[in-house]
Amino acid sequence: MSFTLDSSLASVNKVEQTAEDYAERAGFDEDTVPNIAMAVREAAVNAVLHGNAYDPEKHITASFETTAEALIIRIGDQGSGLDPDTIPDPLAPENILRGSGRGIFLIRAFMDEVNFRQLHPGTELTLIKHRTPAQPGT
Amino acid sequence: MSMKVKTRQVDGVTILDLSGRITLGEGSITLRDAVRDVLAKGSNKILLNLGDISYIDSSGIGELVSAFTTVKNSGGELKLLNLTKKVHDLLQITKLYTVFDVKDDEATAVSAFTK
């Protein structure tokens, strides 16, 4: 499934809810499902807020795919691009009391793989959570 | 569900009972405004009761940190009460658990404020 959505908080909520539904259907446990949903929410917030800056002329894309091995979610924006190497470490003492800057950190904490791709313009994040053989969902 | 705030006073401490979600947008702004209102009324001993917070995202975490520094910079104290497991885990992951003074009993929390 894939969506093209407005740069709005309503889009963030829709993407988050869809991620939760996919994670449940993929058989992830009750602790992991909300973590996946939160990671995807953070990616969508980044796309809407930092990527597209709520620009009504720009859209975000979201795609969801469940394979035998993993849940794969891609979130794209049409912003000026994000270089992951320039993101400050929110755990560093000089950053710990900052009021923002924890989104990418949480995405990486909750997903198994996070990949950045430059779209020129924009950025696409691919979020991957591996399934275990015991998971019965499809 | 958006965030709701109820304010009460116990022994000179302003307790904000928060419920719902603290997320980007309404929840974060509601928390920011509530803390500013308390400070504007001359109280700077604030206890945030998070027992009924069902969800918090990175913006909400950032708002908690901003509230903490705002109150501290005004010469006051801000403590957290009744963290859910989810919020507790998020504060652990982000290494903020030791930044905040976290309590799980209201009477203990109130008495922990500087008299």
Quick rundown:
The complex is a heterodimer of chains A (138) and B (115). With 138 residues, chain A is an alpha+beta fold. Helix content of chain A is 33%, strand content 25%.
The CATH level-2 architecture of chain A is identified as 2-Layer Sandwich
Number of strands of chain A: 5
Uncertain runs of chain B:
none
Q: Give the C-level CATH assignment of chain A.
A: Alpha Beta
- Structurally, the number of domains of chain A stands at 1
* Coarse morphology of chain B: globular
Number of DSSP helical runs of chain B: 4
Low-confidence stretches of chain A: none
The rounded Rg of chain A comes to 15 Å
Q: What percentage of amino acids of chain A are in beta strands?
A: 15-25%
CATH third-tier fold name of chain A: Heat Shock Protein 90
The N- to C-terminal Cα distance of chain A equals: 14 Å
The largest sheet of chain B is:
5 strands, mixed
Order of helices and strands of chain A: EHHEEHEE
What can you see in these coordinates?
The complex is a heterodimer of chains A (138) and B (115). Chain A has one domain: Heat Shock Protein 90. In chain A, 33% of the residues lie in helices and 25% in strands. Chain A is built from three helices and five strands; from the N terminus they run βααββαββ. Chain A has a five-stranded antiparallel β-sheet with strand order 1-2-3-5-4, with helices on one face. The mean pLDDT of chain A is 93. Chain B has a single domain, classed as STAS domain (Transcription Regulator spoIIAA), CATH 3.30.750. Chain B contains four helices and five strands. In chain B, strand 3, helix 2 and strand 4 form a beta-alpha-beta unit. The N and C termini of chain B lie far apart (36 Å). At the A-B interface, helix 2 and helix 3 of A face helix 2 and helix 3 of B.
Note the main attributes of this structure.
heterodimer, A: 138 residues, alpha+beta, 3 helices, globular, B: 115 residues, alpha/beta, 5-stranded mixed sheet, 32% strand
